[in-house]
Amino acid sequence: MEPEHEQLELTKRLEHRPLLLGAFALVVALGAATGMAYAAGFAATREVLERLAPAWLAVAVGARLLAYVGYTLAHHRVMSACEESDIEVDTAARVVAFGAGATSLKGGFSIDARALRGAGASRPRARAHVAALAMLEYSVLASGAWVGALLLIGAPQAQAQVVWPWVIGVPAGVVTAAAGFALLSRRAPRARALHGRLSSRVRSLLQGTEILAGQRRHPDRAAAALAGMLL
Fold first, then answer.
1. Quick one: pLDDT at residue 100?
2. Least crowded by CB within 10 Å, which of 130, 150, 207, 222?
3. Which residue has the higher pLDDT, 212 or 115?
């Protein structure tokens, strides 16, 4: 138990120093890039780097910035539905920026939950709104991946073993998730009476689904959240 306790303490210290954790991740990334360049050959790597197109790099950077703007919009619209807290747009932008980087060992969503807790939300409500944001994000990403896979069917440069799992897996996942949520909804009172980590996660998912469904009463906010996530 002693090594596990030391590891837990190290994790807590790193979580309270996000900039240090980000710097450590950068060092790891540079080391991995150097190792890959060594494996491919430094001469071959240099030849590839010499063919870089600055214009396309500028397009990529611009697209990345637009993605941050879109995600910040979606983040703020979903999180602002929390009646227990009030997160401003500039706070949402900072949370998105930290969450996109390697600043938390628990992932970017843990930073979202921490921000909501700091704004006054209870732990259950914070988890529920983070679950709603995650479901919105993954549904949009999965839909985009599915459309992309459909467009790549039969393309000579696309490998069938990569394309077809997305073509089949996304609809199958949607059906399975819908059936699971329908079953959980019927047993929601029993799930709320349970105790433990599993029941807590189930309740967060159910409440997150209710939050997204409740956005229908606020069409402007729902449209903005969806448009931001699509961007």
1. 61
2. 150
3. 212
Cα separation, 200 vs 191, in Å, equals 9
Quote the pTM value: 0.65
The per-residue pLDDT for range 40-84, each reduced to its tens digit, is 999 999 999 888 888 999 999 999 889 888 888 888 787 776 655
Query: Of 7, 91, 195, 227, whose CA–CA distance to 99 is shortest?
Result: 91
Distance of alpha carbon 229 from alpha carbon 215, whole angstroms: 15
| Cα dihedral 69/74/78/81 (nearest 10) | 70
Q: Under a CB-based contact definition with an 8 Å cutoff, are residues 123 and 203 in contact?
A: no
Cβ neighbours of residue 30 under 8 Å, at least 6 residues apart?
A: none
- What phi and psi values does residue 37 have, to the nearest 5 degrees? -65, -35
Count the neighbouring beta carbons within 10 Å of the beta carbon of residue 207. Answer: 18
Gap between the Cα atoms of 228 and 213, Å rounded:
18
153: left (phi over 0), alpha (psi -120 to 50) or beta: beta
